[in-house]
Amino acid sequence: MTTTTAPATTTDTGLRLKKLGQHIGARIEGLDLSGPLEEGTVSAIRAALNEHKALVFTDAGISSDAQQEAFAAHFGPLTTAHPTVTFHEGTPKTVLPVDSEESVANQWHTDVTFVINPPQISTLRAVVLPTYGGETLIANTAAAYKSLPRELQHLAQTLWAEHTNASDYIRPRTVQGEKEQQYQQAFVSQTFRTVHPVVRVHPLTGEKGLFIGAFAQRLRILGVSAHESADLLRLLQAHVTRPEHVVRVGWEPGQVVVFDNRITQHYAIDNYDRAPRKLNRITVAGDVPVGVHGQRSHSLEGDSSQYSPIVELP
């Protein structure tokens, strides 16, 4: 059996881009992100992100938190590290170390959906990598919505889900050490509850995506029991994580990954024997999600204004 490798193509704006899958993912080569970027380059990256949802930058040139901050800030105001988990001493307040000593994000989720305006973009930079494993899976939730039968699409458009940080994302039975316990306690030190549309309209592309994941704990439907609600969530979530909708990112030194948090979910594979693994995450502030019929998300509990400003576009 022979296989072929898709060649890298050069976009009209000069990005050297290689598609990684039919529905999601592209690798961008030969672009130094360590310094200021021209407006045209930023626009080209945004256009590529709109199309491919997740971008992998090889040899990006970013070697410090300050450089990662400057790169992320090209796309809008930054959030602080997290609504409840405090940033580490000696790191900028925008940086959340995703450290295997503290937590393992091996559940499908969209970042920080328990607040009123989750980040629009997440950036991850490889800092310490295990010798094997530790890949990140990223799924296209617009492709998931499109794969639903039309009748389920229409049903999903009417649904709203309550998202909370007091969720299955943090599971006490998986805690293995003191640092993990401290992280877990910090994560739920303040409760956030927000109601989001199950089908979210992307403000730039107009695409519809399933906006659920691990923080979505229950659907708010009149006349539907908690058991039926959970079954509906499981059904919709299964479409998000179909292999056809997913790209698998194998981490390399010097690599930066950027994904559109409004229309993706991701999962960190726990397959590296808990060897040291650290990625630094910086996120760009987002807008309030809007459903198919124009309704906006609303908060039930928790004030996230100190975590993130609300932006309208992009």
UniProtKB/TrEMBL annotation:
Stored SUPFAM superfamilies: Clavaminate synthase-like (SSF51197)
GO MF, one annotated term: dioxygenase activity
Pfam families: TauD
Cofactor(s) the protein requires to work: Fe(2+)
Keywords attached to this entry: Dioxygenase, Iron, Metal-binding, Oxidoreductase
Gene3D superfamilies: Clavaminate synthase-like (3.60.130.10)
Domain TauD/TfdA-like: 18-283
The keyword Glycoprotein appears for this protein: no
Disordered: annotated segments: 293-314
Family: Belongs to the TfdA dioxygenase family.
Name of the protein in question: TauD/TfdA family dioxygenase
Organism of provenance: Kocuria gwangalliensis
Taxon lineage: Bacteria, Bacillati, Actinomycetota, Actinomycetes, Micrococcales
